[in-house]
Specification:
Helix content: 10-25%
Number of strands: 39
Shape: globular
Distance between the termini: 31 Å
Number of helices: 10
Largest sheet: 8 strands, antiparallel
């Protein structure tokens, strides 16, 4: 059983080094024996100064924190004015033999200078990502240059590097896409210790560095690392019960054009949109579909199917209902007639592009009487079916899991003889602990009600997520969160749902800018202008789930045991074509912690199907071999010894189901 304790953040150590992009020089990595995470966005550093813990070299130029032109952001600026000497800035995270995952944003003011960021050892640059004088981003496979695509001046690039001293290899992502894997280190080493940004000696130029984040991830039990789970796009996945939210575009709380490049790369194959009556019909009787056309067509072009919520009122009409969270239904005859016209026009316009519709958002949160909602649901669903007979229609979209409200709705729907209009029920179960047994107890009660009053209706978890920092707007915002605990929470919710055969939607793709403050439940962190700052660890973790579970089905009633007899959550899946299995295991006894401490646990699976089992940490995407001494099989009973388990899902999976 886990006994986590929060991990304290350590101050930056000082890097005593210089760096060249093109050549190799000695880089000192003296520091603590145990690596410490780095988290830095430079926003609290005074302009013109050197950030604490960073060391700068280069007489002809400077590296100081400055306000970025044209933004309200503050970043580390490297300015090189010499054609014979570089400018460098760096910091240590402490010598480590563990995997180092580094994230940072990089921006060049021109394409005529070479700017690089390096993970360094005592021998020099082991991993480099650079912007070259030919206008291309590049890295290295040993001494060989590997191009990553063209870059544009004065545009930020979101870079992620996972460097593995145990194998001397690295993987590189740019803007959420894995661009290279298994790259050999430029300088061989068994330990990394620092991160450095620098210019080349031959040219001049200016670059900006921001959001430098490093974490270290040790190999479980020292087992051999086989690689990382390779992401699959939505097009590659094809169809999946894993969905992602793109809500509040109707109120401009997010920017679709900003997050669109990340949408298909995630691997979720459907996205939830809110239809935006008030945004579409600002003048009575005049519809402007331009904003929604662009979103629907672009998402479909990325192989992500939109499902649209017909929700929220319109202030252009007296009695038009509320046009935001907790909004009431339209009530006046004029407004209801206008609602009918808008719904009819909406479905007619998108019937060949949208197959699924959801009617209103969280009526129970708004205090809408269930009789009123039922009448409104029937009214709206009939309009949808009249235009699109094969439409799939979801109802309720309720805040939490409100069994009494659901029961009353289903009873009234059945009494009116219109259960045929309902294909699905969606719910939004925000709990500090996503494994809370109460949640799935309520889900079962709703399933029982469905069986009684509307057989064939499916359940969908339609909106759920956790913040990535304290003080977030909305559900769970009163609790302390970090990007680590957010990632664990999202994974536990998703695997719990999918393992129970429940289609599940992650809320949401991007942070949401409400009028009062930011809702930080997004998988992508945003700037104040709603542009994307970087993909959070939760984004890459959901990518891993989408990739691993593509083409699988849940195994209900999977039989297992653990030694010691520890409370664990276990969800199992099988590949449809081969039957080979994927079994997720984690401690779900509490809200996700800030610890990554693992406990060695013996697991026995009855009815298993593995030929070559491997260990996958879903949070990091790392895949490790399970040595022969750590597993055995008798018939279909598989025993695994000393499996490292913690409060984030790990998988025992057949190697054949993993895309590397």
């Amino acid at each position: 059983m886990l006994t986590p304790s929060p991990t304290a953040r350590r101050p930056f150590a000082v890097l005593m080094a210089g760096a060249l992009v093109g050549g190799l020089i000695s880089v000192a990595t003296a520091g603590p024996a145990t690596a410490a995470d780095i988290t830095g966005d430079f926003d609290t550093t005074a302009p013109g100064s050197t950030p604490a813990g960073w060391h700068v070299t280069g007489a002809a130029g400077d590296a100081t924190v400055q306000d970025v032109p044209g933004t309200v952001d503050r970043s580390l600026r490297l300015r090189d004015t010499s054609t014979s000497a570089p400018v460098t800035a760096g910091t240590t995270f402490g010598t480590t033999t563990s995997t180092v995952v580094a994230g940072f944003r990089l921006r060049a003011a021109q394409t005529s200078a070479t700017i690089g960021v390096h993970l360094d050892s005592s021998g020099g640059h082991s991993v480099t990502v650079a912007m070259g004088t030919d206008g291309n981003l590049y890295t290295y496979n040993a001494a060989e240059r590997v191009d990553l695509g063209a870059y544009t001046p004065n545009r930020w690039y979101d870079i992620r590097v996972a460097a593995h001293p145990s194998s001397g290899t690295a993987d590189v992502w740019v803007d959420g896409s894995r661009k290279a894997k298994g790259l050999a280190f430029r300088t061989g080493t068994t330990a990394l210790g620092s991160i450095t940004a620098g210019t080349s000696g031959a040219g001049t130029g200016t670059a900006w560095l921001d959001d430098v984040r490093t974490t270290t991830e040790s190999a479980p039990q020292g087992w051999p690392r086989l690689g990382s789970v390779g992401p699959r796009t939505a097009w590659e996945v094809g169809s999946s019960p894993l969905l992602v939210g793109a809500e509040t575009l109707d109120r401009d709380y997010t920017d679709y054009q900003a997050f669109a490049p990340y949408l298909g790369k995630l691997g979720a194959t459907s996205t939830r949109l809110q239809g935006g009556w008030a945004k579409t019909e600002k003048t009575k009787g005049v519809y402007d579909w331009t904003w929604l056309d662009r979103i629907v067509d672009d998402a479909r072009g990325r192989s992500v199917k939109p499902w649209i919520q017909l929700s929220y009122g319109n202030g252009a009409y007296t009695g038009g209902g509320g046009s935001g969270l907790g909004g009431h239904l339209p009530t006046s005859p004029e407004a209801l007639a206008a609602w009918d016209a808008w719904v009819t026009a909406m479905v007619k316009r998108y019937e060949n592009r949208v197959a699924e519709w959801e009617i209103w958002n969280e009526p129970n949160l708004a205090g809408i009487p269930v009789d009123d909602y039922t009448d409104f649901f029937i009214r709206t669903a009939r309009l949808v079916r009249a235009e699109q007979p094969d439409a799939v229609i979801y109802g309720l979209s309720e805040a939490g899991i409100d069994v009494p409200y659901t029961r009353d709705f289903l009873v009234r729907l059945a009494e009116r003889g219109r259960a045929d209009l309902l294909d699905g029920i969606s719910y939004h179960p925000y709990n500090p602990n996503p494994d809370d047994a109460w949640t799935y107890g309520q889900v079962q009660k709703i399933r029982d009600l469905i069986a009684q009053y509307a057989p064939g209706t499916v359940l969908r978890q339609g909106e759920n997520g956790a913040p990535s920092r304290p003080g977030s707007f909305g559900a769970l915002g009163d609790l302390d969160w970090t990007e680590l605990s957010q990632t664990k929470w999202v994974l536990r919710r998703v695997l719990n749902d999918l393992g129970r055969g429940i289609s599940t939607s992650v809320f949401s793709i991007s942070d949401l800018h409400y009028p009062s403050k930011i809702n930080s439940k997004g998988l992508l962190q945003t700037n104040t202008d709603k542009s994307i700052r970087y993909a959070k660890p939760s984004y890459y973790a959901v990518q891993t789930v989408a990739s691993v579970l593509a083409g699988t089905e849940p195994l209900s009633g999977y039989r297992w045991s653990a030694t010691p007899d520890t409370p664990l959550t276990v969800q199992a899946f099988a590949k449809r074509d081969t039957g080979r299995q994927i079994v997720g295991v984690w401690s779900g006894t509490a809200k996700p912690s800030e610890s990554t401490t693992r406990t060695a646990t013996d697991l026995t699976f009855l009815g298993g199907n593995f030929a070559d089992p491997v260990y996958v940490d879903v949070r990091t995407g790392a895949v490790h071999d399970i040595p022969a001494a750590n597993w055995s099989v008798q018939g279909t009973t598989y025993t695994f010894k000393d499996i490292p388990v913690y409060d984030s899902p790990v998988l025992i999976a057949d190697r054949s189901v993993i895309k590397f």
